[in-house]
Amino acid sequence: EPTLRESFEKDFLVGVALPSSTVDGREVDAATVAGSQFSALTPENDMKWASLHPHPERYDFTRGDAYVHFAEQHHMKLIGHTLVWHSQTPEWVFQGAEGQPADRELLLARMKDHIDTVVGHFRGKVHGWDVVNEALSDSPGEDLRDSPWRRIIGDDFIQQAFHFAHAADPTAQLYYNDYGLAQPEKRARAVRLLQRLIDQDVPISAVGMQGHYSLSWPDPAEVEKSIIAFHQLGLKVMITELDIDVLPSRGASGIADIARTEASDPALNPFADTLPATVSQQLADRYTSLFQVFLRHHHAISRVTFWGLHDGRSWLNDFPIRGRTNYPLLFDRSLQPKPAFEAILRIG
Ligand code: XIL
Questions:
Q1: Whether residue 1 lies in the annotated active site
Q2: Does the complex come out with an ipTM higher than 0.95?
């Protein structure tokens, strides 16, 4: 049987996000599967600001470097995730003197120092960077999200980040990455943002659609519309964080609407022991319809990355409710390929 990376070699890279325990030698079996099946690698958490740069004067590249080594060993493209985001970024980044918030000049200087140091450290080793993550708003009538980056620097924090990243590694690809981009209003918002960046000669190569989906959302036709719309701007498109939540439930907008509830409610954790074969088949069918869209647009798409290797380590066991048993990925908790894996291989 061919591997996933072989099956899609002529179409796009097939990537996986891994925790550091898989790349640093602690999880040998997971490492073997990941290293043979996938052609791209994203650190799930270890290149975020809080991991690489926890204190103003301290950078720690130990875990990040383990990904460089793993990617080289297994001939995988390494994706840097992520430089500028409102989440998993320490509080001090946005603080100024005496309990005041930082001002524009200070925050821009911090952003530049971080990007220079991090992108400089990984120069020639990281294939592409998620430069800005999740800057768009989910609210109708609002363009950019209300984040400390935007409040303190202004809307041009995005452009600034891309220019800093390009200066630090002119050969790395640079991406804008966000979720919910198959939703029509957010797609339109993204198109407007990306068009602005292009008009201003911002060095951006591609847009990442995260791809945190569920069994019912989104309609693959809406995913397809977004791929086409972004590609028409002259950008490559990547699916960067693909997983399919099989648990209840998300609102039609794709935004979690159950964050206040309890996992102990069995209605919210219906597959605690095992996933029924019917649901497993629904998952395979969803992945099949999505990959049919991706293949139809293989000229536009440069990479499809899964947000995790196996169900036991998916963030969706804990999001948006902690402690559930979810089944969003291609390998089960014993690292065996699921029907979804076989289904994708068949159409590759
Ligand atoms: C998630 C990780 O998977 C979790 O382990 C962590 O606790 C929170 O972040 N969008 C992103 C990713 O861009 O970085 C997030 O990853 C998932 C949502």
A1: no
A2: yes
